[in-house]
Specification:
The protein is an alpha+beta fold and 293 residues long. The chain contains nine helices and nine strands. The chain has two domains: 147 residues, Alpha-Beta Plaits, CATH 3.30.70.100; 100 residues.
Length: 293
């Protein structure tokens, strides 16, 4: 992480916690600049942890705009130096139901791969029935596990993980009789990333106070994404990404990167935000195409 960084520690509708890797030079001035926007109700800054706890009205201002405004104020305070905005996607603990579904998948897969009976015998017919039951159990337990995962995410974060859309793929496959194969893919696409290390997403924000040719001040803000080669370096994430693409969850709206969230917010405002300081200076957003810095 760069010296000037804003780390998104936690956010739910109406509340967001940000951590600054460097303390503001003037905390009161810094907070007042962010608080000026309508919809920002309360800001608490803790000097020891360098964290900001912000309460806001989500129907008036989005959490993404608050993050951008914090980044702008931070950049201006430190002489227009770029600020690294970091989103960390942390691992979530798997529940007993998730582990049960994984065990059911393992047992069903082993039973299908191993054949101890003579072809055409009564024992083989009985074994086939057992394999069918195990496959059904694996499919149903995986379906329940994914739905439970979605419910827990909505309760905790206010939005479900995009991977739970794979339940549509699983349901359609189960209707066609493909219980085991589809269940393996769905479980991997939904829970595989939680077995890997936290994923970090970065974008770089740089703000400059400018005077136009009519002697009117404004703030020019440039935001650039920083590509991450971690996916290529980590085989688990590479494999999970492949499964996600297979079930069609990679383009989900809920899977937006931090740069895509900023981009969407900027477009809603016509790429011009209201001023962030006491001066009524508009903020012009310039978002560059994806490239590695």
């Amino acid at each position: 992480m760069k010296e000037l960084s804003v780390v998104i520690s936690h956010r739910i509708p109406g509340r967001i916690r940000l951590r600054l890797l460097k303390a503001p030079r003037d905390a009161s001035k810094f907070i007042s600049q962010v608080r000026r926007h309508e919809g920002v109700n309360e800001i608490t800054y803790t000097p020891i942890t360098k964290s900001l706890l912000i309460y806001y009205n989500p129907s008036v201002v989005s959490s993404t705009e608050i993050i951008v405004r914090v980044g702008i104020a931070f950049s201006l305070e430190y002489g227009n130096n770029p600020v690294n905005i970091v989103k960390i996607e942390r691992r979530h603990k798997l529940t007993p139901l998730d582990y049960y579904a994984a065990t059911s998948l393992l047992v069903a897969t082993l039973s299908k791969l191993l054949n101890f009976y003579t072809p055409g015998s009564a024992m083989q017919n009985s074994g086939n029935d057992v394999k069918r039951i195990l496959s059904y159990n694996a499919g149903i337990s995986t379906l329940l596990s994914v739905l439970n995962h979605a419910w827990r995410e909505v309760k905790r974060e206010g939005i479900y993980d995009p991977e739970v859309i794979s339940v549509v793929y699983l349901f359609n496959s189960m209707v066609k009789g493909n219980f085991l194969g589809a269940s393996l893919i769905t479980w991997g696409a939904t829970f595989g990333r939680h077995l890997a290390h936290p994923i970090e997403e970065h974008c770089l924000l740089e703000a400059n106070e400018v005077i136009d040719d009519k002697n009117r001040p404004y703030v020019d803000v440039r935001v650039r994404p920083i590509s991450d080669e971690e996916l290529v370096r980590n085989p688990i994430k590479f494999f999970v990404a492949g499964l996600s693409r297979l079930v069609g969850t990679t383009s989900s709206k809920g899977h937006q990167t931090i740069f895509e969230q900023v981009q969407q917010m900027s477009r809603k405002h016509g790429n011009v935000l209201e001023g962030i300081s006491r001066k009524p200076m508009p903020v012009y957003m310039r978002l560059e195409s994806l490239k590695e810095i």
